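FW: tagging you since you asked about this chain on Friday. Here's the raw sequence from the shared folder, copied in full. Didn't touch anything.
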Amino acid sequence: MTSRRRGGPAQAWPWAASGWLTLVAAWPAQAQDGAAPAAPLPTEAISAPRPASVPQLHIVAPDGVRQLLERYLDLARAVALPDAASVGETEWSRLVAAAPAQIKTILQPLGYFNPQVAVARTPGTPPQVRLSVDTGPQAKVARSNFEIEGDLVDQTRAEAQALRESLQALWPLHVGAGFTNALWADAKGSVLAKLRAEGYASASWAGTSAEVDAGTQSVRVFAVVDSGPLYRAGEIEVEGLQIQDAERVKALARFNPQTTLTEAALLDYQDRLIKTGLFDQVSVSLEPNPATASAAKVLVQLREAPRQAATVGLGYSANTGPRTSLEHVNRRLFDRAYTARNKFVLGRDEQSWNGEISTHPNADAQRYIVGGTLDRLLTSSDLVLSQRARLGRSTEARGLEKLVFVETERARECGRAATVVQACTDLLATSANLHLTWRDLDSAVLPTRGYTLQWQGGAGLASGSGTQRGGFGRLYARATGYLPLGQSWYSQARLEGGRVLSAGDVNVPDSQRFRAGGDDSVRGYPYRTLAPLKADGSVTGGRMEWTASVEIAHPFTANLPSVWWAAFIDAGRAANTVQDLSPALGYGLGVRWRSPVGPLRVDLAYGQELHKVRLHLSVGIAF
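HL: got it, structure written out here
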């Protein structure tokens, strides 16, 4: 980039040198925006008491400029040095004399090309140095010429026309706009980023210049961007495979030869490969060779996950007590494109097995799944045994997961008084189900911004002891949102609800019904206890449910940003009728440790109906 000042010789702008680029990048955000404050009020920065031989520096300037000078002006930095008293009078005089020229150099990147600087030195003990800075008006763009050339200009497609228009709209340096070095650099960077994202990977600047007239505080801007050729898909080259099939990797691209290679298309391909669970590392890029742009090579670099892996976990939850788990995965079962997963959980109150065999994703990111579950859950008032078998298909797209399946479940639900199990009911249900999950989170493990939405719907046929044979339907929805509030404050909210639709004399297994209470529901109450009671006093699942939660959190100290305190309030209940859905309230305080493997939560919650404080603890460690 070059610049010419009218009335003087051509020269390179000071910030075009690498040292100045670093300096500009380090400036505070309020100084980078380049906007001159409206009617700025001069304020003074007076240094802390110093030895008598050290000059006292006063800078009178608009706030943003004063802070900038305090940080980068050699005189200000020398005054702030711990050994400033050792600086001699000759050096002080040199720093004071050099300050006006240096101030002008520092302010030029902000668009102030003609600032007025007054220096006043007052002798005494200690000596006083006063710098008064009048920035004058910020430079404005007097003439702007932004042009596009290359393949984009020659294309008549509607997409090309829309891209040309969007680039013109993206260019911010219109006549009358304030001019700063940061805005000039951002404008050029944004144009190239837009072109490259839309398939013009070789886009570059054919020429740029900005001519400054310091006398009139005006700038002439000239920029010509060369789009280069439009890159279209050619051969896909896969590297790093030893276990999995290259053809299945290529099929997940989901774009045909001659498809425009936009940034979104490449990122979607990369995301689909990551979600297969078959690879520990994935990189998708194109070969940026203009000579082969009409059939560009797509480079896929992979590092495969181990064919077999086992994970042992230890955990504790106030809901079900201590537990240990073992999970095993085989990513190429029988040397075919199948994945087998098995997970065993052995805990104080819950013992379970969950397993499935699934195909590797096809070109439509679909898997076919066959699986089953065995579960034994013991609470203070009941015992629930469940066996399930399912067959279905899952589809994963960016931000959306869909699962369609049929399931058969056999369940036994028994009341429990002390250690005596009694009044058991056997139920059987077969159903067809659709589950949808939308996710948009800044982190899947430790989210602070974004949301998750879940919706479940199902219909089937139920039968068993103590119930009439008949049809039923089930609906469930849950929304969770995360929002940073600024100043290291964070918030989280949840709302969920569900309903079983059936005749009054038709009952369904416990897993199809609803219960509230516990760590991830309404804190302050035991796990699964906010639900209807049977005639013998034991708790059972309800036909409807709703819960809600709001939480705010903040780090204890800036030195421990991963340890937060939290305040929360929960509400909700499960019941068989709308009249019985009056909310139970729980509220309290907690501690969060945002560990690399997930959050540890400790909550002390007061259950308003129980008039008791309950400790909720949740932690899990995988090996």
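FW: The chain has a mean pLDDT of 87.
HL: agreed, and Residues 89-107 form the longest helix (19 residues).
FW: great, closing this out.
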